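Hey Z.,

So I finally got round to the adenosine monophosphate thing we talked about over coffee. Here's the setup:
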Amino acid sequence: MSELSIFSVSLAHSTGLTHMELIQKSKDLNSLAKQIKSERKTIGFVPTMGALHSGHLSLIQRARKECDIVICSIFVNPTQFNEQSDLEKYPRTLEADSKLIESICDYLFVPQSVEDIYGKEITLKEFDFDGLENELEGEFRPRHFQGMANVVSILLNIVTADKAYFGLKDYQQFKIVERLTKLIQLDTKIVGCPIIREANGLARSSRNELLSEAAREAAAVIFYSLNYIKEFHPFLSIPELQEKAKGMIEGIMDVEYLEIRDAETLKEITSWTENNGVFISFAGTIDGVRLIDNIRI
Ligand code: AMP
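And the result:
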């Protein structure tokens, strides 16, 4: 039996009233969404790339609470990866994923092919996010946000959800998706959900599965140093704190950036008081695995 065909069996929903169903074609998903809307039910949508963990579950649970019908998608989007090797090694655990969510999700959309999403040839739209896309991750992963925004806009147009749920772990992504819905004039409300962490503070991520036990423990230093900035921010200057926190991580991980930014514009701040809220953002690698994290002050 193929990995996908296991889904053809309807899976019992925890309420005993509904069943999670697999959908593999975007046109079927679009028809389903129209049918749900004609019944005046609300749709909550959670787009993911799979290898699901408690971070993803928190999004689905929030959708479950706030909407009548919950749709989750799993699609490892090739256009948001910069390195082919990163795309290839991205964990794919479809069977475990479906088991994890079968009791809280109504429909799981797993496109049967990249073509089903992008058509025969991939032609990406170029969005203008007022420079948000060029900050932080944008500098280290050129084209990443254009690829992400393209797939999210395609998915949101298919699902026409009332609400779509995104994790604040990918804070920059969340801000860009908020902007995207305005640009493409969609009615979907974008909901940001808190970061779910492991016991040692490491943000849950599908990529954590690629870490050795020792690296997973050592990576706790990320959350520790972000909190250090949060705790001491009124007492030390911005560059001083940034250097100290970086120093804590270097030697354990390769730091790509550790930046203290404005939570709305994502630009550097020059004072602790004149800003729209402060957001501390980190990216770095350990064991060859790239991890990101952030906290808000
Ligand atoms: P991904 O599968 O990595 O594309 O993530 C799908 C969604 O889950 C995104 O909106 C992420 O921000 C969110 N997410 C991933 N990890 C976490 C986490 N630890 N806490 C909260 N949300 C998360």
